[in-house]
Specification:
The chain is α+β, with helices and mostly antiparallel strands. It has helices at about 20-25, 30-40, 80-90, 175-185, 220-235, and strands at about 1-10, 10-20, 50-55, 60-70, 75, 100-105, 110-120, 120-130, 130-135, 145-150, 150-160, 165-170, 195-200, 205-210, 215, 245-250, 250-255, 265-275. A hairpin with a 5-residue loop joins strand 17 (about 250-255) and strand 18.
Length: about 280
């Protein structure tokens, strides 16, 4: 039997294992299918993704890898990283109030700090990394014009270790359910893309709904909040001097861009439960 933990950040829920994939899933033949079955909300534990937290080395406390709900690997999950930090606190790997470093597979070294923790909950701030304009290739435009399902959309593509397509004030809520999955697999994004439908509110905050690649609509997306806030800063829609509140269906995250052009994400995380399973049962 193998112990696992379920944590959530504003309703973005993930399953965590202490150990590497090779350790936890040593006897699993089809790992992608296994993780998809585990994340199924009807026949599995139910989650937006799976994360593995292995022991780090040197000044890196842990090595972390993340998989979407369909079992495909991804570079970054901002809410998942915050939840992983709280798990590390609950298991005694780190304390509150002191910065520590982790290694995120596909994204590299990231700094983190648990600002406060009280029982099952905690406020955590994590380094997401520096934003990259376009889809990662040199000479790409800062904007893309997409024709999708009869809609002409002005899209801001950028990467915050994983790819995003930010759309401001152009889509009616009733159209998001069709446009999200269509944009995710558009040929303009060969690695698929996370899609942000955003509106800047009069108070300077951002109202946001995110279609996550490999997951669908989620109650919160940390990297999506970061990508959207940075895109709004680039467009002059919000300032970069103070943290920008990004309001998602699950609650509010705060995004700031420091003087070194590094994105930081802050918000609450919560332990849901700890249980055991037989990995060969999925």
């Amino acid at each position: 039997m193998r112990e696992f933990h379920k944590y959530e950040g504003l309703g973005n829920d993930l399953i965590f294992f202490m150990g590497s994939e090779d350790d936890v899933l040593a006897r699993v033949r089809d790992r992608q299918a296994w993780m998809a079955a585990l994340c199924d909300r009807h026949t599995g534990a139910g989650a937006d993704g799976v994360m593995f937290v292995a022991q780090g080395s040197g000044d890196v406390t842990a090595s972390i890898s993340y998989y979407n709900a369909d079992g495909t690997p991804a570079q970054m999950c901002g809410n998942g990283l915050r939840c992983a930090c709280l798990l590390m606190y609950h298991t005694g790997l780190v304390g509150a109030g002191r910065m520590f470093a982790v290694h995120m597979r596909g994204a590299g070294r990231r700094r983190c700090v648990i600002e406060q923790a009280d029982g099952r909950r905690g406020f955590v701030e994590v380094e997401i990394g520096s934003p990259e304009r376009g889809r990662g290739a040199k000479g790409e435009p800062d904007r893309l014009g997409l024709s999708v399902l009869g809609h002409q959309l002005d899209v801001i593509p950028l990467s915050v270790s994983n790819p995003h397509a930010v759309i401001f004030d152009q889509v009616d809520p009733g159209d998001m359910e069709k446009l999200g999955p269509a944009i995710e697999i558009d040929p303009m994004f060969p690695d698929r893309v996370n899609v942000e439908f955003a509106r800047v509110a009069p108070d300077g905050g951002i109202d946001l709904v995110v279609w996550e690649r490999g997951c669908g609509f989620t109650r919160a997306c940390g990297s999506g909040a970061c990508a959207t806030a940075v895109a709004a800063m680039w467009e002059g829609k919000v300032g970069s001097e103070v943290p920008v509140p990004v309001r998602l269906p699950g609650g509010t995250l705060w995004v700031r861009l420091d003087s070194d052009d590094v994105i930081w994400l802050r918000g609450e995380a919560r332990r849901v439960y700890t249980a055991t399973m037989d990995p060969e049962s999925f």
